[in-house]
Amino acid sequence: MGKQLSMAASILCMAIVAMAAVSEAAVVEHTFVVHEMNVTHLCNTTKIYVVNGQFPGPTLDVTDGDTVVVRVVNRLDHGLTIHWHGVRQIRSCWADGAGFVTECPIPPGGDHTYRFNLTGQVGTLWWHAHVTCLRATINGAIIIRPKDGRYPFRTPAKDVPVLIGEWWQLDLIELDRRMADGNFDDNPLSATINGKLGDLSNCSGAPEESFMLDVERGESYLLRIINTALFSEYYFKVAGHTFTVVGADGNYLTPFETDMITVAPGEAIDVLMTADAPPAHYHMIALANQPPEPDPQIPVFISRGLVRYADVRGDNNGLPVPSPLMPSQHNTMPSYYFHGNLTGLAYPGRHRVPMHVDERFFITLGLGSLCRGGKKVCKRRRSNETIVVATMNNVSFHHPTTTSLLERYYDGTGEGVYTEDFPENPPHPYNYTNRDLIPPGPLEEALEPTFKATKLRRFKYNASVEIVFQSTALLQSDSNPMHLHGYDFFVLAQGLGNFNPKRDVKKFNYHNPQLRNTVQVPRTGWAAVRFVTDNPGMWYLHCHFEFHIVMGMATAFIVENGPTPETSLPPPPPEFKRCGANGLTQP
Asked: What are the boundaries of the signal sequence (predicted)?
């Protein structure tokens, strides 16, 4: 009896200690001041747009269950919003920060406060500007730690946000204006790792500064790799080291060993790297991959950083610094295999895949064209009489510029602003991945005409939705990182070529699929996702390549209220600022 009491007391004591170890939910407050700053790279001084003088911007370091309050002060000459990429925003759609979708931009000299809760998500997300191309430099990481401080993998010695991006010499506002006019000939000058171009970029013989990661032999480091780039997916490697992939987009993954990470725009990949190589210096490389068609002359975007072991001299003890062997920039197959190897970590309480489907969509992703000047008839095949646009099911999304879709929906004044008839399928089937559609010609000319419209889709609360995204070869052969605001979805399968329901549904993973907010739809391939509409509001769906957003590869989903106040979107919070007549938030 005494032993039993002693054992019971020990168990109770351990339970009390475990409960005490669970961190109290907190309110984490920040102020983001957005302003211009001059930075010199490649022998040129460039004006960029930053938060609090930092590029990348501040990291939000929070714990599961915390409430985040961020006051954004806009000191630019134009409006902007901040989007909290991957945050579920349960019943807080007002704080999503999608420009002209959930709010109008913050005006020059104005401010706006975002308040949202982070519950049920652990891992890495990020934040970025969501108006024009400003996210290239206005961005930062969000680290969400588990309540009890325990991970389902070895506790790392250190967290290391690794933000991969691009360096643009062209002003980002001008870049957006050019793309809106159909000019897509501009490219960045280099890749960046945490804002550093690396020693492969130089001018006048002086190498650029590199990102440095200092490590102790035997320790493990949690690299939180985020692709903030406008244009490219990236390969990432460290010479002499391997990675264990453990999470993505704020969700755990089944541990997966690899020596190379591929990360598409919008994605966040968590990997453990153990410093188990002989003490020395080792190069890390971020290399953009580009489809070989239609333009094999796209420049190489690359940045090189350095992993430095402790007690090794600055000259690497006189030895050459090894660099990792990278794939060809035009080889996109490593991305396909990497994403195909990822599965969700099975654990008690994990969300289950809905086995029934209420709404099915087959969405083609491609390009098309509009006649300039509002004409009905014009010469196609990328002529100067047309503007090339991006489409989903042959609809190019018309983004509002003076109002917020969420406000219109909530107020019941959406008539004349949007319609709710986004199509479930493309207007007519064709061989979506026929490479003969990439160059202008008679085959693609028949499929090229499209139109602009603000077509949305409405869903009942708690509906099960399945979407098969199909990348096409129409005037291009890009992959498409598709991002849905306000939701995580199960990635059931991916494949190359045209989706065939009779054959490919058999490949669906219902046991342990990834939960993601961004799915990389392979180049001339497809990806199938499924989710339940349990979060009421107005939720933006778009490709995370910036040129595809500007061109119209987007829509928005309306999710109706549920039967109770707890399943309904509440009124705008006191800090929310409505749109004014000029398309900016009111003072």
From this structure: 1-25
